[in-house]
Amino acid sequence: MKQARRQERMMLDMGRYLEKWFGRVPIAVQLGDFLQLRPTAKRLQHDAPRATDTVAPPASDEEELADDEAAQQTSNAAELGRMLIRASGNWEKALDVAKTKDRIHLKPTHYAYAQHLEALEDVEGALTHYEFSGTYRTESPRLLCSMGMTEELGNYVEKSDDSHLHRWYAQFLESKADLDGAAREYTKANDWLSLCRVACFNEDLDRAQKICEDSQDQAACYHLARHLEAAGHFKEAMHYFQLAGRSSHAIRLAQENQYDGDLMSLALSSDPSGMAQAAKYYEQKGQPSKAVILYQKSGQQKRALELCFSARLFDALRKISDELNAESDPTILAKCAEFFMQHEQHDKAVHLLSISKQFDRAVQLCAEHDVQITEDMAERMTPEKNSMEPSHRAEILQEIGKLCRKQGSFQLACKKFTQAGDKLKAMKSLLNSNDTEKIIFFAGTARQPEIYILAGNYLQSLDWHNDPEIMKNIIQFYSKAKAFDKLAAFYDACAQVEIDEYRDYDKAGGALKEALKYMTKAAGEGDERVISLQSRITLVDQFANVRQMAKTEPDQMVAVCERMVDLPDIESAVRMGDIFAQLVEYYGEMNDYNSAHRTVERMRQRGIVLTPYLDRSLLETIYRAVGQPLPEDEGEQRPAPPDEMEEEIPEED
Prior knowledge:
Elements: H1 2-21, H2 25-34, H3 38-47, H4 49-53, H5 61-74, H6 78-88, H7 91-101, H8 106-119, H9 123-133, H10 136-146, H11 150-159, H12 163-175, H13 179-188, H14 192-201, H15 205-215, H16 218-231, H17 234-243, H18 247-256, H19 260-268, H20 272-284, H21 288-297, H22 301-311, H23 314-323, H24 330-342, H25 346-355, H26 359-369, H27 375-380, H28 390-406, H29 410-419, H30 423-431, H31 436-446, H32 449-460, H33 468-480, H34 484-502, H35 505-523, H36 528-552, H37 554-564, H38 576-589, H39 593-605, H40 616-625, H41 632-635, H42 642-652
């Protein structure tokens, strides 16, 4: 009687729950009928008449069950349908419903079915459904153990590839003191920590070390390190602490046992806190150089510098100062700069003053102590635009440029003068570098008459008559500067080269005409230089015509030449030697060697050296024809006296 009432109360509670949350009172009524709780079902129908109106009383229990299944499927009550089917004992149907319409409860259904099979002692079926439910890692071993099927348990685990099962079985074997079997299973589970723990328990340290070295498992290495430390093997423990990534423990052991040789390498591979810990140890041990390195690497730059100051570690301080930048603590920068100045390390002081933006003081220090300014140093001492008044910035750049020019860094000086806006000084500095390509480029970009003239003057000092490009640039620069007097002088020089080197009076006349054109623009028609050029052009043209007359009017040519050699200012336009050479060559062609000989002797009487004007073969022919020996001092180039040669040799070296 009490049992029936308890069941009735349970059904009432379930019915109310279903009605409240799911509106499933008809299902509760049918469930009550199925469980033969007719009074309860009637009470539920009375409590919810609208819900039960739609359900016709089944003719029999089987018909009720069939109707209930159809109702659950049509009303999407898959969960309650599955529960109802399970309650009927039709597990295959329950699994099918869960698989197709209620997959969220598929694994719980497998689990419930496995428990059902376990109660029926169907071990194979229970194991299968425990696997389907995903609970086999704990439930399968429990089932086999509870039934005393240890051999089957071993076979079951052996067939599985699941590492959790192998680990569980290893722990089971270890609890049974089967350490070899446990080690085998731990290996299959890749549980290196447990494997190392078993080896340490057996005091098989060689095997434990091999496990750690092969696996590089940090947990295993840490366990072995603690075991070795407890056994007093500190060196080995330090090694395995490091492999485990626990450098702080390795550093602690090194300090406790005074392994100073190993401590430095351990600290450098540690984190900042480990480095700082080791640095403090070295500082206390009186090894400041190592402490400075570790403080610096751990980020405690200020402490590293303080130690450098107190221990006077110049090299370490220089290295640290190289890593300082504009974002460093201004106090540190100032202190370092002051320290370097006190110890006459002026280049480092300049570097620190520059990055701390104390530009005036940095430049002053360079000037006072003749600090060699490199390109990097000059750039650091250059203030950024808009960082100060433009006039002040220009003054600093001017001072840097002067120092660079004084030190022979002409291109760097040019750059600083240019940044200061003084292109004229920049050009003058660049000229001292003798870098023709840069001089031409700078002059072309500067666009200032004075700079064009400076560039033209410099190019004239080069071998311009053998380099057409340089000659072109000279003319171009003087033209852009409208320096007509310079152009006139250049064309005059061109004419002289044509005369001296090539005896080409036709080209010389053309060059002199260009010189006259520009001199007229520069000085005017009545200027003495213009008149002088006009006179020279007349003489040059006259002699150029004479050389052409030799073939057509030889007598006239001879007369003109004889007249020209007597002109007082002939050397200003035509070389006397060229006039005499013209006569000698003509007489030689005519085989009039007596006249040729007389003309040569006239040249010698006037002090004219023969070899620049006459070929040796011609002279030998002339003197042989008149029966006289060739003068030794005129037939070939006179060698320099011995003392002059001795002076020239060192100059060539």
